[in-house]
Specification:
heterodimer; A: 110 residues; mainly beta; six-stranded mixed beta sheet; three-stranded antiparallel beta sheet; 45% strand; B: 121 residues
């Protein structure tokens, strides 16, 4: 049972937009920024969004993030086949004094 | 470019202690603003934070693992290590070492490739 709640799956057709939600609590998302990770099968997570809405260099601007209260979301526009992956949210938890993660959302590009 | 590489056994027997080491290159484990963590991912499941060590040597671990966790650092080798005792099948997972960067806001910006640890007799 993950501390942050994500839908287990999402899907979309190429070219369209999909959003993935992440819900937490006051001690994590409510108090700190949210990071998003993309994980291709058999590989380590890759930082996709940090500080809730910032992209590391090299991440296409098709990927965007937002946060409101104790929830956050990742949006992917202009969906491409290579976007098919698992997406996880993460936030620092002040009560735990450590990282908490979502269970991951498997994105399928139809 | 910072790189992290895990090393350790791929198979551990139930009740034994897992020992993993993470070798860091391209950066120092003694640098300020960084925490060094262990994170795991059971097959088909989400990520779980295990423990971290900060640049001063302070540590913290996930209370869900009770007192089974020990994390340590060897600055002379630029490595940090994890020991997880009393292993059971539930500890079967891919174990990652990772860096938390506290500049501006906390983010895990670098990960090792991960190492699969299976608990089985």
């Amino acid at each position: 049972q993950s501390v942050l709640t994500q839908p287990p799956s999402a899907s979309g057709t190429p070219g369209l937009r999909v959003t993935i939600s992440c819900s937490g609590s006051s001690s994590n998302i409510g108090s700190n920024t949210v990071n998003w990770y993309q994980q291709l099968p058999g590989t380590a997570p890759k930082l996709l969004i940090y500080s809730s809405n910032q992209r590391p260099s090299g991440v296409p601007d098709r990927f965007s993030g937002s946060k409101s209260g104790t929830s956050a979301s990742l949006a992917i526009s202009g969906l491409q086949s290579e976007d098919e992956a698992d997406y996880s949210c993460a936030a620092w938890d002040d009560s735990l004094n450590g990282w908490v993660f979502g269970g991951g959302t498997k994105l399928t590009v139809l | 470019q910072v790189q992290l590489q895990e090393s350790g056994p791929g198979l551990v027997k139930p009740s034994e202690t897992l020992s993993l080491t993470c070798t860091v290159s391209g950066g120092s484990v003694s640098s300020g603003s960084y925490y060094w963590s262990w994170i795991r991912q059971p097959p088909g499941k989400g990520l779980e934070w295990i423990a971290y060590m900060d640049y001063s040597g302070n540590t913290n671990h996930n209370p869900s693992l009770k007192s089974r966790v020990t994390i340590s650092v060897d600055t002379s080798k630029n490595q940090f290590s994890l020991k997880l005792s009393s292993m059971t099948a539930a500890d079967t997972a891919v174990y990652y070492c990772a860096r938390t960067n506290w500049n501006a806001a906390p983010k895990i910006d670098y990960w090792g490739q991960g190492t699969l640890v299976t608990v089985s007799s």
